[in-house]
């Protein structure tokens, strides 16, 4: 549920059977989020928001509503670009070097550029559309190499270096960027 609040903009209310009490946090979009127990009525959630206004204002870095919407828009555009590019680039390299993966997933986590799961799903962060092509390709080759080595062992890096001779430079340069949108 979303509460439209005059001061905080859109407030995300997440009902959870596991929540014991009401907790406030900041969502990745910079919106205020409340997690509440399942049985909490909308009336009660709003009342709780009102009684905690001062604490929220002082403690939580909420983005102003205008910024929240700008970020939503930016993320949507990035997702669109990523959809038209990343799965095909992954497929291209997989074919070129003889890798077999099962699925390609697009993510927008704040912390990682990509991952490879044991069921051979490769996840790529849409934030890759904002970094130089060489770094983007490096992440793709890195995740593909995980299909053969589910760790960062010497054998793993040897395989990465076969397809990206400059992988050390790329790994280092990638740290200058943040995967968050
Ligand atoms: Zn890795």
Automatic annotation (TrEMBL):
Pfam families: YgjP-like
Protein name stated in the entry: YgjP-like metallopeptidase domain-containing protein
Record domain YgjP-like metallopeptidase: where: 67-175
């Amino acid at each position: 549920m979303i509460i439209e609040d005059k001061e905080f903009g859109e407030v995300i209310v997440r009902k959870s059977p596991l929540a014991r009490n009401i907790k406030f946090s900041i969502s990745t979009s910079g919106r205020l989020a409340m997690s509440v127990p399942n049985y909490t009525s909308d009336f009660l959630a709003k009342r709780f928001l009102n009684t905690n206004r001062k604490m929220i204002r002082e403690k939580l870095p909420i983005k102003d509503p205008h910024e929240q919407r700008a970020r939503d828009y930016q993320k949507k555009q990035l997702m669109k670009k990523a959809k038209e590019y990343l799965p095909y680039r992954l497929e291209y390299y997989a074919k070129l070097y003889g890798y077999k993966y099962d699925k390609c997933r697009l993510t927008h986590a704040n912390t990682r550029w990509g991952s490879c799961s044991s069921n051979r799903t490769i996840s790529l962060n849409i934030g890759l559309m904002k970094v130089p092509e060489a770094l983007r390709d490096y992440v793709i080759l890195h995740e593909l190499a995980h299909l053969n080595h589910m760790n960062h062992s010497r054998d793993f890096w040897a395989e990465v270096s076969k397809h990206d001779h400059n992988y050390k430079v790329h790994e280092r340069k990638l740290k200058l960027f943040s995967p968050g949108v």
